[in-house]
Write a structure and sequence with these properties.
Elements: H1 12-19, H2 29-39, H3 52-57, H4 63-77, H5 81-116, E1 119-124, E2 127-132, E3 141-145, E4 153-165, H6 167-170, E5 176-177, E6 195-196, E7 201-213, H7 219-225, H8 236-270, H9 275-292, H10 297-314, E8 317-319, H11 322-328, E9 333-337, H12 338-342, E10 343-354, E11 357-361, E12 372-373, H13 377-380, H14 382-390, E13 395-399, E14 402-406, H15 409-420, H16 425-431, E15 433-441, E16 446-452, E17 458-464, H17 466-471, E18 473-478, E19 481-484, H18 487-502, E20 506-515, E21 526-538, H19 542-552, E22 555-559, H20 564-573, E23 582-585, H21 586-591, H22 594-600, E24 604-608, H23 615-624, E25 629-633, H24 639-644, E26 647-651, H25 657-662, E27 665-667, H26 672-714, H27 723-734, H28 736-741, H29 765-787, H30 792-813, H31 828-845, H32 848-854, H33 861-887
Parallel strand pairs: 9-22, 9-25, 18-21, 22-24, 23-24, 25-26, 26-27
Antiparallel strand pairs: 1-2, 1-3, 3-7, 4-5, 4-6, 4-7, 8-27, 10-11, 10-21, 11-12, 13-14, 15-16, 16-17, 17-20, 18-19, 20-21
Length: 903
């Protein structure tokens, strides 16, 4: 395949010849795969994935780990072979845990990327199909329409009013109209109106184009080469945990350095300083620093966020940026579109007036399940039902076990209605063949079709706006008779239609006319068959989701372009609108001063006839009150509001590519209830991060205070624990139990507590209290058992077992930060991690070489008695703290600051 440089200057024939592609067939699948092998993926920067081996070796690059490896070598030189082997084993196990966590995080992020690759429509083997944009190759024939992002550089082949927003590439604010033709060789990029460029978006119309360049070979790829590759920014939570790690690490290293200096100075002044003393002192300080510094803190947080994001994607909520996970827990207002999100986006006929009576129909959406009432109503409205399916272009299909409508949603509602009534649509359309039609137009507000009926008569059916149809009718069916339709009856029927409209129903009228010879005025002198009242009914789970929002302190708000009556009817049905709430129309919003909107915005539950551009005004008013706003959208014009909201939520089914790119989250099922599910999962992820960080920091503070303090008091000749024992404690308490806390089940009341203030420090009152309680409970007991022991070996043994078991009990009690261990007991993985840790510790203690290297003996009853006291003391203290948090929950500040959206 040739590769010209000036694609805009070639004829269409030359372009297709150079690309070796037939525009009516596209590429064959085999040819596409071959080109993917040659050109690679359609990505701006091809990711250099780190291999598992390199990821494992990276665990040994930390300065403290390197010091430990050097210490192991020195131990060998000093003849302490077993100590060296033990240090190496512990370092390897620690590295293995770090590798496991990073590898899981990397795999979770890689799995998420398959969701992030937007689909694009191409012609392959003569058939249109959707493929990930990363699979595009030069020569692919693109089909693009309004709202699509342009995934690669391409030459235009066909256009229908095609205009492209190229502001991201050229800075030109107005959309550029595209044409077919040849341009001069030196035409500047901004004037190449026969080309489409990657990174731009279709603002209007549709077109067909041939891909000429992908990835780094595109115009935007050339710009990317001039810019240094930027690393992705860290989330606020990652930044805070890194800061915690740095501060704690600096403190720990300072303490350890102080221990080294103090002990060496003491030994030097007493004349007992030897190389062995210096080595043991330094090794102790390094081991203590390793135990105290939470080096994996940021990696654990990243892994938890990535794994949580993957879990959310399984629940139809695709998170596009990590900060959104954290922000979800702070959302106080959800501004949601009505159609397709609160509702199914599927019209349903709910009420029919026909033959002088009413019929009510149950069922929601396109699922043809429902009941007509009163009994026998189907027989009374048969003529109206037949007209509804004949004057109709919609078709019902079944795909993936669900009924789908191809065509207009209003016509689809009439088709579903007929199926509910037991009519065979295909058979009736075949028997009553359409022989002519007058298409719908916005000027006429009606549609007519002419049919050769089964009895060979010719009949015209017309449906449209009631006021239009009634003007064209001279008769109506009433109690199985055709009667004259005078002005009084017309006014009565219009009144019936208005009553149905007040119930939020969209009303259409349907009529028929028998045709004889030539009729110069076809749509006149008709017989009214009835009125159909239909509505886009709420999803079945929306009302429950709204109830959960209200219970948790999140205000749901409906924003729609629909009429006020319809909007309020739906909002009442799902409990978004209550007595006393305000309703605002788009016209009122446009002329309302910002200060007046600010004063009223918290009382407004429904915005009707609102354009996407008006959403920004709503967001700004809510943010001034300190609200954290989640806003939904699906169109190109929704992108600014999605960007400006704290959480921008795009529709995955009906949303445009532009909306999805602007959003923080994509609903894969376009369902309001999924937003609430995402908030729940976001809170779950944040809670679990708090749990394992609290456990890690509690353990680290205890180890630094107890071991460092004892070393300062007693000196290196009387160390509370030998370096291998310290390293083992760090491995066994910061390993499996901490990871198990990261996958704790959802708290039972996670959706019953108020939203978290976005400015809340990680060191919230619960985290601080649990750390302080751990320190106050464990430290005195550990000091006591060490300094009251009859000899150094007994003291080290008691400290070793008591510290491990005490920290494991802390982990068990941190299964929940609010609920009692009896109502929210430790989950299976946490229990197993603790059992494995305890069993492995006691097993190691039985090995003489290990116990000698650790400087410990077998535990005796005095140590076990202290353990029992600590176990019950920690549990009782933590239970008291949890009771306090439940009794006096923290209130969300009324003047809470809004979050700033990152990314």
């Amino acid at each position: 395949m040739d590769k010209p440089s000036d694609w805009h200057a070639l004829s269409e024939e030359a372009i297709l010849r150079a690309l070796s592609v037939d525009p009516s067939y596209g590429l064959g699948q085999g040819e596409a795969e071959e080109r993917r092998t040659i050109f690679g993926p359609n990505e701006l920067r091809r990711e250099n994935r780190i291999s598992p081996l390199k990821l494992f070796l990276r665990q040994f690059t930390g300065s403290l780990t390197i010091i430990l490896l050097v210490a192991a070598i020195l131990s060998i030189l000093l003849g302490e072979f077993f100590d060296a082997v033990l240090i190496l084993i512990i370092v390897l196990c620690t590295a293995g845990l770090g590798f496991l966590q990073e590898y899981r995080a990397a795999r979770a992020l890689a799995a998420l990327k398959q969701f992030f690759s937007p689909a694009v429509t191409v012609l392959r083997n003569g058939i249109e199909e959707e493929i990930p944009s990363g699979h595009l190759v030069p020569g692919d024939i693109l089909r693009l329409e309004s709202g699509n992002n342009v995934p690669a550089d391409a030459r235009v082949l066909e256009v229908k009013s095609l205009r492209v927003d190229e502001a991201s590439l050229t800075g030109e604010s107005a959309p550029v109209e595209k044409f077919i033709g040849i341009l001069p060789v030196g035409t500047p990029m901004a004037d190449r109106t026969n080309m489409l460029f990657a990174g731009t978006s279709i603002a209007y119309g549709r077109g067909t184009a041939a891909v000429v360049s992908i990835g780094m070979d595109t115009q935007i790829g050339a710009i990317a080469r001039l810019v240094d590759a930027a690393k992705p920014g860290k989330t606020p939570l990652e930044q805070r945990t890194e800061e915690i790690g740095r501060r704690l690490g600096a403190t720990a290293i300072l303490i350890c350095f102080g221990i080294v200096v103090l002990n060496i100075t003491q030994r030097a002044s007493s004349g007992s300083l030897t190389l062995d003393v210096v080595f043991n002192t330094v090794l102790f300080a390094v081991a203590l620093a390793v135990a105290a510094v939470p080096e994996a803190l940021a990696a654990i947080v990243t892994g938890a966020l990535a794994i949580g994001m993957r879990e959310m994607a399984k629940r139809k909520a695709l998170i596009r940026s990590m900060p959104a996970v954290e922000t979800l827990g702070s959302v106080t207002v959800i501004c949601s579109d009505k159609t397709g999100t609160i509702t199914k986006g599927e019209m349903s006929v709910r009420k029919i007036y026909s033959n002088g009576g009413f019929a009510d129909i149950s069922g929601v959406g396109y699922e043809p399940a429902g009941v007509f009432s009163p009994h026998g109503a189907v027989n009374k409205i048969g003529a109206a039902l037949l007209a509804g399916i004949l004057c109709n272009d919609a078709e019902m299909r079944e795909a993936e076990g669900k009924c789908q409508i191809k065509g207009d949603s209003t016509e689809g509602a009439l088709v579903v209605l007929a199926v509910k009534a037991g009519l065979n649509i295909s058979s009736l359309r075949l028997k009553n063949r359409r022989i002519g039609e007058i298409p719908f137009s916005s000027e006429r507000k009606c549609m007519s079709t002419i049919h050769m009926m089964a009895d060979t008569s010719r009949v015209m059916f017309t449906k449209g706006a009631p006021e239009v149809i009634l003007k064209q009718c001279s008769h109506m069916i009433y109690e199985d008779r055709i009667i004259s339709l005078d002005e009084e009856r017309k006014c009565e029927i219009l009144s019936i239609g208005e009553t149905m409209a007040l119930q939020g129903l969209r009303v259409i009228a349907i009529a028929q006319k028998s045709l004889g010879g030539d009729d110069p005025a076809l749509e006149s002198g008709m017989t009214l068959l009835g009125l159909f009242g239909m509505i886009d009914a709420p999803r079945g789970d929306t009302k429950d989701a709204v109830r959960i929002c209200r219970e948790v302190g999140i205000k749901p708000v409906m924003i729609t372009g629909d009429h006020k009556l319809t909007a309020v009817a739906i909002a009442k049905e799902v409990d978004i609108y209550r007595d006393g709430d305000l309703i605002l129309s788009g016209d009122e919003l446009q002329i309302m001063p910002e200060d007046e909107l600010y004063s009223r915005v918290k009382k407004i539950a429904v915005y009707a006839r609102v354009s996407p551009a008006d959403k920004l005004k709503i967001i700004r008013a809510l943010k001034k009150h300190g609200e954290v706003v989640a806003m939904t959208g699906d169109g190109v014009n929704d992108a600014p509001s999605l960007k400006h909201a704290d959480i921008g939520i795009a529709m995955g089914v009906t949303g445009t590519d532009v909306a999805k790119e602007a959003a923080d989250m994509v609903l894969l099922d376009d369902n309001f209830a999924t937003i609430v599910t995402a908030i729940e999962r976001g809170r779950w992820i944040y809670d679990n991060i708090k749990k394992f960080l609290t456990a890690l920091l509690s353990a680290n503070f205890v180890e630094v205070v107890v071991l460092g303090g004892a070393a300062v008091i007693s000196g290196t000749s009387y160390l509370p624990l030998l370096p291998p024992a310290i390293l083992y404690i760090n491995l066994v308490t910061d390993g499996l139990p901490a990871l198990a806390l990261g996958v704790s089940p959802v708290e039972p009341d996670v959706m019953k507590i108020p939203p978290r203030a976005p400015s809340e420090s990680f060191f919230s009152r619960d985290v601080l209290l649990f750390i302080v309680l751990s320190l106050l409970l464990l430290a005195p007991v550990l000091f006591y058992v060490f300094f009251s022991a009859p000899d150094i070996d007994r003291g080290r043994t008691d400290v070793f077992f008591l510290m491990i078991l005490g920290e494991l009990v802390i982990a068990l009690n941190l299964r929940s930060l609010r609920h009692s261990i009896f109502t929210a007991p430790p989950h299976l993985s946490l229990i197993l991690s603790v059992i494995i840790s305890i069993a492995f510790t006691f097993l190691l203690a039985e090995i003489p070489q290990v116990s000698d290297a650790f400087g410990i003996r077998k535990p005796v009853i005095t140590c076990l008695a202290a353990v029992i006291i600590v176990v019950f003391g920690i549990t009782a203290a933590f239970e008291g703290a949890k009771y306090y948090f439940r009794k006096f929950p923290k209130k969300l500040s009324a003047d809470k600051p809004s979050v700033r959206r990152s990314g």
